[in-house]
Design a protein that fits this description.
CATH superfamily: Divalent-metal-dependent TIM barrel enzymes
Strand order of the largest sheet: 1-2-3-4-5-6-7-10
Number of domains: 1
Helix content: 40-55%
CATH class: Alpha Beta
Oligomer: single chain
CATH architecture: Alpha-Beta Barrel
Distance between the termini: 33 Å
CATH topology: TIM Barrel
Shape: globular
Number of helices: 15
Largest sheet: 8 strands, parallel, barrel
Low-confidence stretches: 4-60
């Protein structure tokens, strides 16, 4: 999940997308899709080699599990529920992550109506069941610790109503952000602090966690637990207090085992995290509750000039950006993504892999189609290898 990028017209699909079979897929994609990524990315080759080294460890289970491939529904916000289901069914996707409010909105989920009317709830769920599409997670990314009380209350209420809906649907995972408060009781805007010096910043950071973040999530986790929800998957995202594995584990330790990760590697690639090491770290703790499938390209020349904290939110600014979100396979090669899926299988991850498309070049449905192609083929390779 991220802010809105300006979208440019997607290029036409290359012919080999339709022609390459499963047996030649990795060779084709690694040699064609990822050539550009390898030359433009500051870390793709290093990540792939590190992933291969890590994958050689023999202390992890090896039996592959077919991870269901799904999609996060805001990319289809322009479509009705029925039209969206036809689209994703035609793509052969098996699951869906549904927005219930907050930043994703709720384009396909009338939460209040479904909570108020059991017949409407059953009819809504039946649409998915009829197409063998599993409603795997509900997502309500927001900022429930916002310094504006009205915004905090709104987003906290969205979370509570999402919990109630999940209980009725039998959905076990809720996805969101940790939120970010102000730096003190009188602040009007969120204040994302990552560096504890000068001293007033450390004082503010300690106050944020002690007075706002931990108390809120203790209360929210208790409410979720009361309604049978024990998996709150927080996306590690800049501008929020949980933005990397260390801050996620810090909150989990303070609050309890209901707190886990929505492991969106796109936000960790630009932080120079190794995806395999992250998955194993969080998998060892048993706290990977959800996984977004989204890639990132790092532009070496711009990273060298401007560092990694240099983003673009308008298409015209992309040439100056250090990083850019891409569809799976267009930032790192298929071999890396094969290793990522293998590692999820090895650590016993039992959720879905959910495509989230925020690629400013392969926009909307095009990016979903390309990502689905990559993921289905690397998954098939893994299952065939046994």
């Amino acid at each position: 999940m991220n802010g809105n990028f300006a979208r440019s017209a997607p290029p036409s699909a290359p012919g080999f997308l339709q022609q390459a079979g499963r047996r030649t897929f990795l060779k084709t994609v690694s040699g064609a899709f990822a050539v550009a990524a390898a030359t433009r990315s500051a870390g793709a080759g290093k990540s792939a080699s590190a992933a291969k080294r890590s994958a050689n460890r023999s202390d992890l289970p090896t039996a592959p599990r077919k991870l269901p491939i799904g999609v996060f529904d805001p990319v289809y916000a322009h479509l009705s529920l029925d039209a969206m289901l036809e689209k994703i069914s035609a793509l052969g996707l098996e699951a869906v992550e549904i927005g219930t409010g907050g930043y994703p909105g709720s384009p396909h989920c009338p939460v209040d109506d479904l909570l108020a009317d059991a017949a409407k709830l059953n009819a809504w769920k039946k649409k998915f069941d009829n197409r063998n599409i599993h409603v795997a997670t509900l997502s309500c990314h927001g900022n429930p610790v916002h310094p504006d009380p009205a915004i905090a209350q709104r987003d906290a209420e969205t979370f509570r109503r999402t919990v109630l809906l999940a209980e009725k649907l039998g959905v076990k995972v809720i996805v969101g952000f940790s939120g970010c408060p102000g730096a003190n009781p009188t602040d009007k805007n969120p204040n994302w602090i990552t560096y504890g010096w000068p001293d007033e910043y450390n004082t503010a950071l300690l106050w944020q966690w002690r007075e706002k973040v931990i108390p809120y999530w203790k209360q929210a986790a208790a409410f979720a637990r009361q309604h049978g929800i024990r998996r709150i998957a927080l996306e590690m995202h800049p501008n929020f207090c949980v933005y990397n594995p260390k801050t996620l584990l810090k909150l989990r330790e303070a609050v309890g085992e209901e707190i886990g990760a929505n492991c969106d590697l796109s936000h960790l690639f630009w932080q120079q995290c190794d995806p395999v090491i992250v998955i194993r770290l969080l998998g060892k703790e048993g706290c990977i509750f959800h996984a977004h499938m989204k890639d990132t390209t790092l532009y070496k020349h711009n990273v060298e000039q401007y560092g990694v904290l240099n983003f673009a939110f308008e298409t015209k600014d992309l040439p100056q950006a250090s990083a850019n979100f891409r569809a799976v396979g267009y930032g790192h090669g298929a071999e890396l993504w094969k290793t990522v899926l293998r590692t999820y299988m090895e650590v016993g991850y039992d959720g879905i892999i959910s495509i989230e498309n925020e690629d400013p070049e392969l926009t909307g449905e095009v990016g979903v189609e390309r990502a689905a192609y990559v993921l289905k083929n690397v998954r098939a390779e893994l299952l065939a290898e046994g």
